[in-house]
Amino acid sequence: MQVAVIGANGGIGRELVPRLLDAGHDPIGVIRDESQFDAVREHGGEPRFGDLKGEFAPALQGADAVVFTAGSGGGTGWDQTLMIDLWGARRSIDACVEHGIDRFVMISSYNAGDPMAGPEAIRPYLVAKRCADDYLDWSPLDATILRPTTLTSEEGTGRISATFEDRGEDGEEIPRADVAQTAVVCLENEVTVGETVRLFGGDTPIEKALSPDD
Ligand SMILES: NC(=O)c1ccc[n+]([C@@H]2O[C@H](COP(=O)([O-])OP(=O)(O)OC[C@H]3O[C@@H](n4cnc5c(N)ncnc54)[C@H](OP(=O)(O)O)[C@@H]3O)[C@@H](O)[C@H]2O)c1
Q1: Which of 58, 109, 163, 213 has its CA 20 to 30 A from that of 33?
Q2: 85 CA from centroid of ligand 1 (Å)
Q3: Residues 152-168: pLDDT tens digits?
Q4: Mind listing the pLDDT tens digit for each residue in 59-75?
Q5: Is the pTM of this model over 0.85?
Q6: Whose CA is nearest to atom 7 of ligand 1?
Q7: DSSP labels for 115-184?
């Protein structure tokens, strides 16, 4: 299927596009900077321009599913957090409804379920993520919300620890590559529709970790 990756040249996005291709999908890489088009092509994606703060919805034309992995990043102000992590995510969901795209995987964040439980310094970010997740939850889309803990740029292991409820023990940091692979597996696993999944580094193969008995 055609899967649009919003944030395709970000850390998770760069890991996700080639994995979608390997899994037999046609990835569309949505980016806001045309100088990144070649990078998306090199990863095996069809680059499309889409700025979450500007012209955006046409970038999703023809897609069957969307993965949202954009973010304002830690170096910007809360104004950008509002515009991208919250409003950009909401615009992405609205664009899916507009285009009749049913399937949506959100890369949210650990502690977004309970922002007040997170570190005070990043609570506004967690609130933005939580509000975007709630909007997705209330939308008609077939949604999976992934809430990874701190991301690393280590090589992927193909193994994670996942909990289907937004509580329980904390775990280890997780490579972006493993979050990307988890998103691919979710797209192929209807059991994850309607679920919110916390992700940590771990020892369980991704497919097994996402089965409801684990
Ligand atoms: N860092 C962590 O430890 C952590 C933990 C849990 C969850 N997360 C979440 O995981 C996701 C991915 O993280 P990451 O580290 O892969 O992020 P990243 O490397 O910062 O990538 C984010 C991407 O979003 C894009 N973006 C920013 N503003 C945009 C706009 N206006 N329109 C379109 N695209 C825009 C950026 O594009 P440019 O390349 O043009 O800047 C960038 O490629 C984010 O949603 C983040 O909140 C992160």
Answers
A1: 109
A2: 9
A3: 999 999 999 999 876 66
A4: 999 999 999 999 999 89
A5: yes
A6: 109
A7: GGGS-GGGHHHHHHHHHHHHHHHHSSSEEEEEEE-SEE-SPP-SEEEEESSS-S---B-EEHHHHHHHHH
